[in-house]
Write a structure and sequence with these properties.
globular
């Protein structure tokens, strides 16, 4: 593993982005581009669980650690992507300590959770390294819960205090939608939520993360103490590059 969890514990700032095309090739390109981590998105991305394996294999030879966002806190879904070799899992819309605990149980083997045990999986080198993987999984597998609902804002301390939750990850699009201020990232209510989330995480000794859309906002979030920072996605990189070049060619024609 690439020790993302330990690096966060050491206070490092880690840069990442989303992978939502379901493509092993774009995963490899992005993984080689200089990001510390990438997130394969099964909640909104175009790929399916079948595509995750090829993306994880492509990312193996890159410096980027691979996280996977699953659609829910269902334990077997979490365990399946971990067995494939994901280094951590993100779960959306976690709104209570009970939901956070369910996520954690899916992340870890007994006695710390209820993750199913299988030796012949990619994460353990198909059984060859099972004992080593088992021994270090609890200290290496990263548990990320997303704060995206108004209910979560009322339960931040209990969510953050859940043992096994490593990161409170802010979902700005969903959170502003819930607050009735969609896309208004300068709105006082969103700013208030940011401070509440980062303060709860700091009090519990946990890290905070966010996905933002404008690179110019980097300093704003970093200054709040957010250390798992994501900006952009493979689809965005392709779309922006294609549009920019097509526009440039069009201008030459004009």
């Amino acid at each position: 593993m690439k020790n993302l969890k330990q690096r966060l514990r050491n206070g490092e700032t880690l840069h990442g982005c989303w992978l939502n095309l379901g493509s092993a090739l774009t995963a490899e390109i992005v993984g080689l581009s200089g990001f510390d981590w990438v997130l394969i998105d099964l909640e909104h991305g175009a790929g399916t669980e079948r595509d995750v394996l090829a993306q994880l294999q492509a990312l193996e030879r890159t410096p980027a650690a691979a996280l996977v966002r699953v659609e829910s806190s269902d334990g077997p879904r979490i365990g399946r992507v971990l067995d494939m070799g994901a280094e951590g899992v993100m779960v959306p819309k976690v709104s209570s300590a009970a939901e956070a605990e369910r996520v954690v149980r899916g992340l870890h083997y007994p006695p710390y959770g209820n993750r199913g045990v299988a030796k012949m999986v990619r994460a353990t080198a198909f059984g060859k390294e099972f004992n080593a993987y088992y021994d270090q999984a609890r200290d290496s597998v990263l548990g990320v819960v997303q704060v995206e609902t108004e209910d979560a804002l009322h339960r931040l301390d209990e969510i953050a205090a859940t043992e096994g939750v490593d990161v409170l990850f802010i979902g700005p699009a969903d959170l502003t939608m819930e607050l009735g201020i969609f896309g208004q990232f300068d709105h006082p209510r969103f700013k208030e939520a940011l401070h509440a989330i980062t303060n709860a995480a700091k009090k519990a000794g946990k890290a905070t993360g966010i996905l933002f859309f404008n690179p110019d906002d980097y300093r704003r979030y970093h200054d709040l103490g957010i250390r798992l920072l994501a900006c952009g996605a493979d689809a965005t990189f392709v779309a922006d590059g294609a549009r920019a070049l097509a526009g440039k060619l069009h201008n030459f024609k004009s």
